[in-house]
Amino acid sequence: MLKNLFKKSGLDIYSPSNGQIVPIEEVPDPVFSQKMMGEGVAVSPNGGDITAPVEGKIVQVAPTKHAIGIQTNDGTEILIHVGLETVSLKGEGFNVLVNEGDEVSVGQKLMEVDWAFLKQSVPSIITPIVITNSSNDKEYNVTSEKTCKQGETVLLSVK
């Protein structure tokens, strides 16, 4: 029973890919850098698949396959937006492995990405991870790490 008193509260958002961590304010797109979509962080991936950064339910798969929305058990809504201006690719370069309504766990594969194609086709492969329903009554702590490991590095903690 005492163990529950010291149980950590809040939410940890793990990296969906290996790569370099980029502060959201440095994403070269004002929609993300000015936090119009919400609080967050970004990763400049160095290949591999995109995995779930949290445990939750898939609530959105963009028709153009470039973005996936997940809702956690506490109601936090997280958007993974793979690359910038990738909506213009109309799904090319992405193989989504989940559907709306699917339950996912941290590290579960969500999509395969053709990074070489993306690098040739869009301005940036930087991948923002944004809390679309972020609010002022919570504290958001971005990691001080510079590199991240998929499913292991906590990018952002919410309290």
Label this structure with key terms:
159 residues; mainly beta; 8-stranded antiparallel sheet; 3-stranded antiparallel sheet; 3 helices; 37% strand; globular
Give an overview of the whole structure.
The protein is 9% helix and 37% strand. It is mainly β and 159 residues long. Strands 9-5-6-7-11-3-2-13 form an 8-stranded antiparallel β-sheet, with no helix packed on it. Strands 1-14-12 form a 3-stranded antiparallel β-sheet, with no helix packed on it. It has a 3-stranded antiparallel β-sheet with strand order 4-10-8, with no helix packed on it. Strand 6 and strand 7 form a beta hairpin. It is globular and about 40 Å long.
